[in-house]
Amino acid sequence: MIKAGIIGATGYAGGELVRLLLGHKEVEIVWYGSRSYVDEKYAHVYRNMFDIVDATCLDDNLQELARQVDVIFTATPQGYLASILTEEILSQVKIIDLSADYRIKDVATYEKWYGITHKSPQFIEEAVYGLCEINRDKMQGVRLVANPGCYTTCSILTTYPFVKEGLIDHHTLIVDAKSGTSGAGRGAKVQNLFCEVNENMKAYGVATHRHTPEIEEQLGYACGEDVTISFTPHLVPMNRGILVTAYASLKKVAYPDGHVDYPTEDMLLDVYHKYYDKEYFVRVLEAGMTPETKWVEGSNFVDVCLKVDPRTHRVILMGALDNLVKGAAGQAVQNMNLLFGFKEQEGLELVPMFP
Ligand SMILES: NC(=O)C1=CN([C@@H]2O[C@H](COP(=O)(O)OP(=O)(O)OC[C@H]3O[C@@H](n4cnc5c(N)ncnc54)[C@H](OP(=O)(O)O)[C@@H]3O)[C@@H](O)[C@H]2O)C=CC1
Ligand SMILES: CC(=O)N[C@@H](CCC(=O)OP(=O)(O)O)C(=O)O
């Protein structure tokens, strides 16, 4: 049994971590960290925890926490961990950071897109980008995991096999994404109020969203070239869920008889299967199905599927996940399982909720 502490346990991602870790056989949560609710009962902040969690919220004393636990989850705003992380802390404990502080390897890129100065760039190099399906082999002996963003997890897993295999022209890649409002966190601003979001839909962060360089960097590693995409997120009136629809022009391939032509839908589906059949959390849907946020809600699954448009020679790649689970807390638990040698699915075999 290991001990875990959560800084930011009172946020949406932290709250989801609590829910998942309470169902994990190998972990005990000993620190419910907060900024605004110190000394208040955690179950008074989140009443779904009434009669389940008796603990009182503690502060965000990372030094003290590092002495007490085996793993710390930081589910805090961008810049928080970077501003307080030290070698002394990292030498005592493993940290899984749900923010973007250590996701992007180039510090200038991080500072440009996030508009903040990185306070501890010396730890960026050693941090592993915790997209388990792609970086599982890099988790041995790791001290710091950069847990990927919700849009990014969905966008990368949906497109990665085709970028890696060189089957699409990545210069033409357009990622259109939609998110439920919990993606903005509990401390969200006026534009996320019910009467602003309900019966409404809008694009935001157009051509400027901070997940753009994260997706580009990871897809760049996949194909060994610089990748530049168009990424447009939208806010939709749901609690949870990310839906990605990505468009790219297909590249011609050589067929066994020597002729060169565009790949067929079946060939591309085989590629999804080649990459994901062994992945418990990625479900490749049958041809003709389209991923829906409702079918993955509350679970750590990512559903993917595709359609070839023979008129345009483009492929339309589609993916859906729950932003608070595979897009945040579930992925963080999956990373913890890898770091500590637990079964990767432990605590995460959650059947999606419906309706
Ligand atoms: N929501 C989502 O779907 C996803 C979120 N993330 C990332 O996870 C992190 C948390 O997001 P989310 O849960 O949505 O945000 P919330 O706004 O819901 O929660 C933020 C949490 O951080 C705490 N906090 C805020 N400021 C400070 C501070 N200065 N010092 C210590 N603690 C602080 C808050 O404490 P208190 O409430 O007690 O004030 C709260 O517990 C962010 O980096 C976000 O980008 C990543 C993927 C998906
Ligand atoms: C709906 C909504 O507002 N979503 C957030 C993404 C939340 C998230 O995943 O944040 P990080 O990955 O950057 O930590 C946004 O667009 O900023």
Write the SSE topology.
Blueprint: E1 2-7, H1 12-22, E2 27-32, H2 42-45, H3 62-68, E3 71-74, H4 80-84, H5 87-90, E4 94-97, H6 107-114, E5 128-129, H7 132-135, E6 144-146, H8 150-164, E7 174-179, H9 194-197, E8 202-203, H10 211-223, E9 230-235, E10 242-249, E11 253-254, E12 260-261, H11 265-276, E13 282-284, E14 302-309, E15 314-321, H12 325-340
Parallel strand pairs: 1-2, 1-3, 3-4, 4-6, 5-6, 7-9, 13-14
Antiparallel strand pairs: 7-10, 8-9, 10-15, 11-12, 14-15
Helix pairs in contact: 1-12, 8-10
Bound molecules: NADPH dihydro-nicotinamide-adenine-dinucleotide phosphate (NDP) and N-acetyl-L-glutamyl 5-phosphate.
NADPH dihydro-nicotinamide-adenine-dinucleotide phosphate binds next to helix 1 and helix 12.
InterPro entries: AGPR, AGPR_dimerisation_dom, AGPR_type-1, NAD(P)-bd_dom_sf, Semialdehyde_DH_NAD-bd
Function: Catalyzes the NADPH-dependent reduction of N-acetyl-5-glutamyl phosphate to yield N-acetyl-L-glutamate 5-semialdehyde.
Enzyme class: oxidoreductase
What is the averaged pLDDT score?
97
- Low-confidence spans: none
What is the percentage of strand-forming residues? 15-25%
Class derived from helix and strand content: alpha/beta
Using DSSP, what is the number of strands? 15
> What is the percent of helical residues?
25-40%
Elements, N to C (H/E): EHEHHEHHEHEHEHEHEHEEEEHEEEH
CATH architecture of the largest domain: 2-Layer Sandwich
